[in-house]
What we know:
The structure is a single chain. The chain is an alpha/beta fold. It has 2 domains: about 5-230 and about 455-480, P-loop containing nucleotide triphosphate hydrolases (Rossmann fold, 3-Layer(aba) Sandwich), CATH 3.40.50; about 255-445, Rossmann fold, CATH 3.40.50.880. The chain contains 15 helices and 27 strands. The strands form 7 sheets. The chain has a 7-stranded mixed sheet. It has a 6-stranded parallel sheet with strand order 2-9-1-10-11-12, sandwiched between helices. The protein starts with a strand and ends in a 17-residue tail after the last helix.
Amino acid sequence: MSGALLVAGTTSDAGKSIVTAGLCRWLARRGVRVAPFKAQNMSLNSMVTSDGAEIGRAQYMQAQAAGVEARAVMNPVLLKPGSDRRSQVVVLGRPVAEVDALEYGAHKERLAGVVQDSLAELRDEFDVVVCEGAGSPAEINLRAGDIVNMGLARAADIPVVVVGDIDRGGVFASLYGTVALLEEADQALVAGFVINKFRGARELLEPGLEQLRALTGRPVLGVLPWRLGLYLDSEDTLALDAPRPGARSPFGRETLRVAVVRFPRISNFTDVDALACEPGVVLRYAASAGDLAEADLVVLPGTRATVSDLAWLRERGMAAEIVRRAEEGRPVFGICGGYQMLAGEIVDDVESGAGRVDGLGLLPARVVFGEAKTLGRPEGRAYGEDVRAYEIHHGVVTVEGGEPFLDGCRHGPVWGTTWHGALENDGFRRAFLGDVARTAGRDFTPAPDVAFQALREATLDALGDLVEEHLDTGAVWRLIEGGAPGGLPVVPPAGAPAI
């Protein structure tokens, strides 16, 4: 067979990525050869595949759920915003252009062909492809050039289920309104709904489910309960406000308090997920100097806009606080863009066009941005432990002193590296946190038995369980195998009025 399903959502962060991953894990358990697919993704959380291609981190996670190797065709178009108006366009894992929203339209026809070829390749190889939409399919201002939501569904004749987040409120209006704003031909492919993040008395919800079916002629295929700790490789910074996994110990000397700077263009914030899973580590995101005051470790994560986010850091007084902490011997850790900020000098004629800019001067290093993008899966050792990681950057760092640390360096209480994912290596993470705790004067000792990859697998299994236990899997399978049923009613008002 060559079945497919598209998981759309009423909003960003409605749960599309999680539902797609759960469906992939459920199907893989049944012995189905399944692959994830997202035609176009706008995200600053990305990953490097084993063959050196850059794709959305969520699609990498979904491939893990499906038990298959992640590939560029699973996310053929990736947009990485560098400002409110400009994004880097990554096609089949390689950067091809920097464009603004209007310029991007000129690329759509060619990209539509890339998307359709990529989907066809996966459908030829796998039994089922579970596609994820982007944002909402009811963004009627973007419908004409859509290649990821109903445009994809129409081109490939794929049935669609729409996910709504009931925890935000207004779920019935958003589900009905999503369908009502679609053209009749698009509506014909919308076959059902999934309600996500429900908590409360199910019997109070039932009348609404029945009324929604009566109004739209489409069933609610399942109600997924709200579960703490299922945050996993999100695409949206909206998810940073959600409860994080891991221990929430009270403050004490046995606790390690970590503050992660929440840059406006923060990228690959999944780097710190492994820290949040450590018992006794309390992790918080920081957007002011006061948020850093009580932290034992400050993490400067990746960013898609190193120079402008460094200026933001200075404007908010956070740069001065970080320098003061380091001078007092308090730990600071920079990853990729955050590492570049810690250098003495940054020369950027590529990403920002700012030329020479003073860094924070906490590491003996110099950064020069180049046109070529470094994508790789490096391996090394630190603290006597093996480290496997990945790197995605334009900035080339020249280290001029300090102690070697992965590909970067350490100078006193300050560490820096371009390697993402290093903290997911259990032995290295424990040794690093132990060193941080000693430097910070804490009694914190990392747990000896936290296996990050095992926790990820357990989370993916939990997503598969949610699908199996709370979705009408028989109905879902019929959609995958047979497509949207004919004769689905038109939900008024059909289409959008001319303006």
